[in-house]
Predict the structure.
Amino acid sequence: MQKINAEIHWSEKNYCCGWGAEGIGTIMCTDKTLDGVKKAFKESLEFHIEGMVADGDNVPQWLIDKEYEINYILDVSALLRSIEPYTTMAAISRATGINQKQLSHYASSVKTPRPIQRQKIIEGIHKIGEVFMAVR
């Protein structure tokens, strides 16, 4: 089974998802919700493949046979936006030690964190999740 690593970012007021491969082209889509952009990407990919086959383009058999798994990779902006309904930037700031204003810059795609900062954010989110899971 092949893996398609589709990247999801936050831009202005939408999630943006994209993937591209040489000889296949690029699929890009947006939606207001994370679930919506994932659904739109899957549908766009299938439509793109159908179009390529109909046009007689050279398409890898694994794409035609749908022998792939879509792996959605959220960048920090999309990650932070996806958890907004469940926590606050202030809580994430306390859990990570990262300044709240800096987190807001990451969430708005104004700045991109280094990999070590991304890991701190993920660990902080996990820490918050552990507190929620401990509630009985």
